[in-house]
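Suppose a colleague, Dr. K., hands you the sequence of a protein chain of 260 amino acids and asks what its three-dimensional shape might be. Before reaching for any lab equipment, you can write down a predicted structure in token form. Begin with the sequence itself:
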Amino acid sequence: MSDTVNTSPDGIPAATVVIFRKGEVDGPPEILMTIRSRNMVFAGGMAVFPGGRVDPADFELGAMIGGPLDPDEAAHQVAVVRETLEETGLAIGLKGDIDAAKARAAREFLQQTGQLAPVLDHFGWELDLDQLTPFARWFPKNERIPRVYDTRFYLADLGTGAVEIEADLSENTHLFWTTAQGALDAAEREEIKVIFPTRRNLERLALFGSFEEARAQAEAIPVRTITPFIGETDGKSWLHIGEEHGYPVTGEPLESVARG
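The predicted structure, expressed as tokens, is then:
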């Protein structure tokens, strides 16, 4: 871990998505998580949600979309669509003639071009960003971590679980479906490792019995940037977030916090 505090007013723009699918009968929904490759500078070996940094081409495409989204927000949502297809093989936020075979072909095409716009042109697809619901925004600019990302989180729903997923193996080692509580339990058993924002988001996601419940809460609570801060509780240093963001747990002893 670096001892240098990032004092830049701007973090690295990033976007990530919590992808839901129906769980077992009468059970909570499942969400898709990925294990980051251990050689990655940020969150190496950690269980996270699919996503990554917003590329210049994402900003270019976001500026071309028009409509109700401002170009910056559109770029982050474009990044979610691109990163999800690249990392998992799932085509979310897209509409057109899409099936499993075309999604595989589009993923291969994307890995060659590195940009989403040529994929849309080649397959005759369009963006359908209404499939994405803004959920949160985390910017840990005051923490001593090697890279500081300003990350926007989104929700998306697959509905059925009859989908194909496969890790890209460059940034991730494997993908898995789990309930939010199942991921928290696995972290407690030290079967997976999660950083502070992921744990807090899993705790929030564990509140919901369906994607619809999660989306309703996300739409009811305005997304405000979360910048964790250190405070004293019972004589110990804790890492806190504000109470207004919809999270059931808003702090953790600093000594137990896992960071990027």
